[in-house]
Model the fold of this input.
Amino acid sequence: MTRERVAVLLSGRGSNLVALAEACARGEVPAEIVLVVSNRPGAPGLDRARERGIPIAAIPGKGVPKEEHERLVAEAIEEAQARWVCLAGYMRLLSPTFVAHFPQRIVNIHPALLPSFPGLDAQRQAWAYGVKVSGCTVHLVDSGCDSGPVVLQRTVPVLDDDTPETLAARILEQEHIAYPAALRMLLTRTWRLEGRRVIFD
Ligand code: GAR
Done:
C-alpha cells in the first residue's frame, strides 16, 4: 500500500504527533509524517519530531499578518510534498484560502464531543458545564472553529471527583487511539460527504 505524505501542524506538547508517528511506524496507518510545522518556535512538539528524525519548520505566527503566515506554512507543506495535513493542538484558525488549498485533506482533533465545547480549554468547559460524558472528536477542517464534518468520536465518563486535569488526561488517552484510527479510515477506505455526514462505504 502506498504511504500518504502527511504534514502535522502543532503549537504545543505534541502527544498526538507522537501517537500518529508511532501508529505510522507500526504500519497501522499507511502514512509518513514528512514535516512538522509549529507556529510557536519553542513548542515541545518540535522536540518530539526531532527525536524521531522528522523534518521540522518553526514558522512564528506572532506579529505576522495571518495571510503571510499561512502562505509560508502552505509553502513548507508543498515543498515537503505532503498531501494531507493533520492539526494536532494547532491553536490557530485557518482561513478559507488555506483550507481550499487542501480540500477535504485537513484533519483536526478536538478534546470534546463536538459540536459541544468548541474552542479553547474544551475539557474545562465540559467539566464546568457538568456533562456526564465527554470525549474527543476527529473532524475534517473547514474555516470555522472546530466546526467541520465529524470523522470519528470516542467517549469517556465524567466522574464526580474529576478535576479539569483528570478529565483531560482521560480524554487524551482516547485522543491517542482516535486520531490514528480516524486517519487510517480516511486513507484506507472509500468515503464521501453527504451534507455534513462523512459516510464510509
Ligand atoms: C489536544 O488535547 C488536542 O485535542 C487539543 O490540544 C491538545 C494538544 O495536545 N486541540 C484543541 O483543543 C483544538 N481545538 P498535544 O500537543 O499533546 O497533542
The chain has a mean pLDDT of 97. The chain has two domains: 1-103, 108-201. The first strand starts at residue 4 and ends at 10.
